[in-house]
Design a protein that fits this description.
The protein is of the alpha+beta class. Helices cover about 40% and strands about 20% of the residues. The protein is built from three helices and five strands, in the order H-H-E-E-E-E-E-H. The chain has a five-stranded antiparallel sheet. Strand 3 and strand 4 form a beta hairpin. The protein is globular.
Length: about 130
């Protein structure tokens, strides 16, 4: 069965709603992550998949933004293939494909390093798309 993705404008509205509904540090963190993703790649497409997960794509999935009780998790679809000199990845490190960044309350995000990682994920997606 195919994942149903909403049009970008509907997905963006649902992400706005999620951020507002959270109403705490997780909403602020997700909003900040979203802002950094958009700054890193103004052509990124926002999607809403898997019954309520914000997804950012460009040439394929770049990352997701999941919220849990004690973390906001950014999962990079092809994170294992990305260089991470700033050591942002701190979760899902044992997998062969994905890598994640768990952000906890009051944790500062390394904004320049995160933008670099997002751009690298987009570059990888576009490179794979051209060679595939």
């Amino acid at each position: 069965m195919k994942n149903s993705a909403l049009p970008a404008d509907s997905a963006s509205a649902l992400i706005d709603k999620r951020i507002q509904e959270l109403g705490d540090w997780r909403g602020k963190t997700l909003s900040k992550i979203r802002e950094l993703i958009r700054q890193a790649d103004p052509q990124i497409v926002e999607e809403w998949k898997w019954r309520g997960t914000p997804v950012w794509s460009h040439g394929g999935i770049v990352c997701t933004g999941e919220t849990y009780k004690s973390i906001v998790k950014m999962t990079f679809a092809k994170g294992a293939a990305l260089k991470d000199p700033a050591h942002l990845f701190n979760s899902s490190l044992e997998g062969n494909v994905r890598r994640a960044i768990d952000v906890r309350e009051n944790e500062k995000i390394n904004e320049p390093a995160l933008k670099t990682l997002i751009r690298a994920a987009v570059t990888l997606n576009l490179k794979n798309k051209q060679s595939g």
